[in-house]
Structures are given as structure tokens and as C-alpha cells.
């Protein structure tokens, strides 16, 4: 059965609207139908990841044929580096993440990992190579241990415990009366937004993928929790090819490169300091967010 769940890692993207962050089996099967149009190419071979060099080359995409969302995107993510994608709301950031996971096929261009077109390899191998920490984590109505182990079939108890430590949630789990056997989800213990995100991080650590997609939470976590989670995410991204979909600029300052998307195109890219010197869209967004921070307002998403 867990084999069947594997393509569901993208649930968080799709089910952003599910407020409680918990779903039942029935709704998961509905979801499976939504990407039925993506099929393995005839004779598709498994992806062979060597170093994890991710490239987007002239990527075009439209959900609806008469409204193009991505209009020729080139992004190079060298193996082991972190590239952040920022830009106004609706620019196409989350769409980009979905395409790397091949949740949809492109309408033009290609995406490669170590030179292999992701549309030409088996979906199972592609999805095994990519870990996603989504905005809203979906928890199964099962134990917290199961929810972590779901990252990879056959994960051992030791691996689950290691992952929980890596995600800084082991102490919390130990404090629960039934530890890893505590039931979570709508029929069990309700976890906070931050705790759920840590379960997602632990799930990803169990999977140990060479490529990571982090879709930063837009939902309000208190600033201390957010900073703690940010530190954990930075730690798990080290040594892996990482693409961060960022809604707050303060979290991308340390990225190796920042790509600014605007209306489906790359408006500019560079490091934080290079982009500030450019005095373009990024500098403008940064100044606006800095003003908001000074005014003591709640952090506002980068849009
Ligand atoms: P935000 O920062 O607000 O999350 P974003 O940059 O991630 O925005 P996307 O979610 O990628 O933007 O959306 C880009 C555009 O694609 C939007 O105009 C959106 O309405 C449209 N879009 C997103 N998902 C779908 C979908 N499933 N079907 C049709 N259009 C969609």
C-alpha cells in the first residue's frame, strides 16, 4: 500500500485549501486522478542521480492553453547548491516546484537532473530522488512514527528516530505518552503548524533525497518557531541540491543564488547583495519588507 502513497508527496501543494491539514484515504484516491495525464514515456529508464545537478531550460507551462503561466524559464541549480525563487504572488513559484516533481508536463523546454530529461525517466525514480517539504503538511490518521516512516518504505525504527532528531522533533515525541506510537491527525493528537512542518522535515530526512524542494510556509508561525524551522531547513539542505520557494525575503539571504520571477519570467537573479546593488525588483521588495518589519507589522509574504 505504501507504494501507492508514494506519488502523494505533492499532496501539500494540491491540498493547500485543506484547512485542518489532515485527510482521509478517500480524498487521497480522488487526488490520484488529478495527475493521471502524466505518464511514463515508452521505455522510460530509472533516473540515475550522480551529483544532483538540476537545470530548467526554456521552461514554458500553461494550465490552461490560452493562459501561459511560465514563459521561458532558465534556472541552473548546481549540485549541492541552494537556489531561492522569489517574486510577487501569482508569478509562478509554486508551479515551478510542481513541474520539477513532474506533477504536470511542460508545454515547452525541459527540466534535467544530471543531464536526464525528467519527462524521459520513470516517475517512481524521479519522485524517489526528490524530497518536498510542502507549505502545509498532510498527516495521515495514524501514528507519528508511521507519518515519518512514510518518507521511505522499509525505514527502520533507528532511521525514524534519527530523522526525528534531525528535524528537532524527537524531544517533543518522547514527551508524548505513547512516543512514536501516538496517534496524530484528526482522530488523534492535533499538532501545531510548526510541529507538522517538523514531521514533514523528518519524513524528508528518512527519504534522504539528493534533491530538495522547500515550499516555505506562508501560514503564520510565530517568529521564534519560524526562525527555528528555518535553521533546521538550512541544515537539511546542506550538501543537497535545494530549491526554496520563498514567500519571505528574510529567509533567502543565505541562498547561493536568488531567482526573481515576475509574470512567468526571470526578472533578475544573483546573490542577495548583488540583487540589492541592482536596485531592481528584488531591492524594491526588500525595502518594502524592511519597512514593514520596522513598523513592527507581522511579517508579510514576499508578494
Ligand atoms: P504565491 O506566492 O501567491 O503562492 P506563486 O508565485 O506560487 O504565488 P503559482 O501558485 O505558481 O504562483 O500560480 C501562478 C499562476 O497559475 C496563478 O495565476 C494561478 O492562478 C495559476 N494557477 C495555479 N495553479 C493552478 C491550477 N491548478 N489551475 C489553473 N491555474 C492555476
From TrEMBL:
Residue ranges occupied by any ABC transporter domain in the UniProt entry: 54-288
Domain of life: Bacteria
Localization in the cell: Cell membrane
Annotated signal peptide: none
Protein name: ABCB family ABC transporter ATP-binding protein/permease
Gene source species: Sphingomonas canadensis
Amino acid at each position: 500500500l505504501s507504494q501507492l502513497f508514494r506519488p502523494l508527496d505533492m499532496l501539500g501543494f494540491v491540498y493547500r485549501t485543506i484547512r485542518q491539514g489532515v485527510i482521509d484515504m478517500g480524498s487521497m484516491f480522488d487526488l490520484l486522478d488529478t495527475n493521471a495525464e502524466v505518464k511514463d514515456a515508452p521505455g522510460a529508464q530509472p533516473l540515475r542521480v550522480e551529483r544532483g545537478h538540476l537545470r530548467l531550460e526554456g521552461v514554458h507551462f500553461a494550465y490552461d492553453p490560452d493562459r501561459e503561466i511560465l514563459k521561458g524559464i532558465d534556472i541552473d541549480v548546481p549540485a549541492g547548491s541552494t537556489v531561492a525563487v522569489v517574486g510577487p504572488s501569482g508569478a509562478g513559484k509554486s508551479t515551478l516546484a510542481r513541474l520539477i516533481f513532474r506533477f504536470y508536463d511542460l508545454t515547452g523546454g525541459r527540466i534535467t537532473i544530471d543531464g536526464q530529461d525528467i519527462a524521459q525517466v520513470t516517475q517512481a525514480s524521479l519522485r524517489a530522488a526528490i524530497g518536498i517539504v510542502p507549505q502545509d503538511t498532510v498527516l495521515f490518521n495514524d501514528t507519528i512514527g508511521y507519518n515519518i516512516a512514510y518518507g521511505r518504505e522499509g525505514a527502520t525504527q533507528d532511521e525514524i528516530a534519527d530523522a526525528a532528531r534531525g528535524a528537532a522533533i524527537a524531544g517533543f515525541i518522547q514527551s508524548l505518552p505513547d512516543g512514536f506510537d501516538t496517534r496524530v491527525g484528526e482522530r488523534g493528537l492535533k499538532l501545531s503548524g510548526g510541529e507538522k512542518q517538523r514531521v514533514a522535515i523528518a519524513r524528508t530526512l528518512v527519504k534522504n533525497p539528493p534533491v530538495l524542494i522547500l515550499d516555505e510556509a506562508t501560514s503564520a508561525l510565530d517568529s521564534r518557531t519560524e526562525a527555528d524551522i528555518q535553521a533546521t531547513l538550512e541544515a537539511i539542505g546542506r550538501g543537497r541540491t535545494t530549491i526554496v520557494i520563498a514567500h519571505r525575503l528574510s529567509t533567502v539571504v543565505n541562498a547561493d543564488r536568488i531567482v526573481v520571477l515576475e509574470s512567468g519570467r526571470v526578472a533578475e537573479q544573483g546573490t542577495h547583495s548583488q540583487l540589492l546593488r541592482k536596485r531592481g525588483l528584488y531591492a524594491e521588495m526588500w525595502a518594502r519588507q524592511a519597512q514593514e518589519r520596522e513598523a513592527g507589522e507581522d511579517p508579510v509574504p514576499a508578494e
